[in-house]
Amino acid sequence: MPSTFSRITTQAQALRKKTMERLCGVTLHGDLQERYVDWNLSLPLGKKREERLRIIRDTGVLFIHVPKNAGSAITQDLYGCRMRHESIRYYLRHAPDLVYTLPSFALWRDPVERFLSAYDFIRNGGGSEIRLHPDFVKHYADLTTLDRMIEFVAGASSIYKLDHVLRPQTWYLTDRQGNFSIQMLFDMKDINHLHALVPGLRQGNVRRFNTTQRFTTQIPQSQKDKIISLYKDDYKLQDYIKPVHAYSATARPVLPTHNATALSADIQSTGAFVIPTEPALAFSAALSANTIAAQR
């Protein structure tokens, strides 16, 4: 049975968390890191966050987990664990070596289909493995129709008033200036072919994880048009999408961890961070010491 001191300590920690969330205008405590990045400030990283960065560094590939884009399945296969929905801005702030030395990729999903999946996720209270955050359960309790959900997103005063599943895909993939900042973007439909380019992914169909029970698949054009308008910038991301087969065999990656570590240390010591100018830069080029040296 917890002691009086233990209960008081727990209550004080909970109060501190809620106070920080209110002061910073966020609903999710994990968004404090993103909020501070918005302000060009840094919060110290906890042990779990540091461990996730270490796993990415050791794996040699940076995957940006955009929610409702099959990211849970990818992170389980690639990293052997769940990863948070961190934006590329988070990594640029706290681990720039990962952005500038490791190959990075993400999956894109048609915004209408993604929104309908998110709506079903919320109405179900979450997926098969990951449930909707309790604070958002309360916020979304009255959003019992698709029109109400669309109106809620359209009227949100801040991105941080939305659960991750409702945030635009651009929010995860762009830097503080709004520039697309990862190297490769694939259509989610190509997920079962990514193993040809990404070491660590199993060959064949990627295992489904945190699936959503679907019941909203067909909607009238009027609702589609509203969703398209809400997420119009996500459609612009299609300019950066390339099919897996667009990469030649010679451009397929060889990602020894020691090379990635050496490059990370080299760039950290010199401070020579260079943003790749070609969004779909081949994985092998991203890890080539000669390429990075030539860009300095």
List keywords for this structure.
three-stranded parallel beta sheet; mainly alpha; 15 helices; 296 residues
Characterise this structure.
This protein is mostly helical. It has a domain at 45-250. It has 15 helices and three strands. It has helices spanning 4-24, 31-38, 47-59, 71-79, 88-94, 96-101, 111-123, 134-139, 146-154, 170-173, 221-230, 232-236, 257-270, 283-286, 289-295; strands spanning 62-63, 104-108, 184-187. Strands 1-2-3 form a three-stranded parallel beta sheet. Helix 9 (146-154) runs parallel beside helix 11 (221-230). The longest helix has 21 residues, at 4-24.
Rounded Rg:
20 Å
Shape: globular
Number of helices: 15
Into which percent range does the helicity of residues fall?
Answer: 40-55%
Query: Which residues sit in consecutive blocks of at least 5 with pLDDT less than 50?
Result: 252-296
Q: Tell me about the biggest sheet?
A: 3 strands, parallel
- How are the strands ordered across the major sheet? 1-2-3
Structural class: mainly alpha
**First-residue to last-residue Cα separation:** 60 Å
Summary of the model, kept short:
It is built from 15 helices and three strands. The chain is mainly α and 296 residues long.
What layout of secondary structure does this protein have?
Layout: H1 4-24, H2 31-38, H3 47-59, E1 62-63, H4 71-79, H5 88-94, H6 96-101, E2 104-108, H7 111-123, H8 134-139, H9 146-154, H10 170-173, E3 184-187, H11 221-230, H12 232-236, H13 257-270, H14 283-286, H15 289-295
Parallel strand pairs: 1-2, 2-3
Helix pairs in contact: 9-11
Pfam families: Sulfotransfer_2
InterPro entries: Sulfotransferase
GO molecular function, one term: sulfotransferase activity
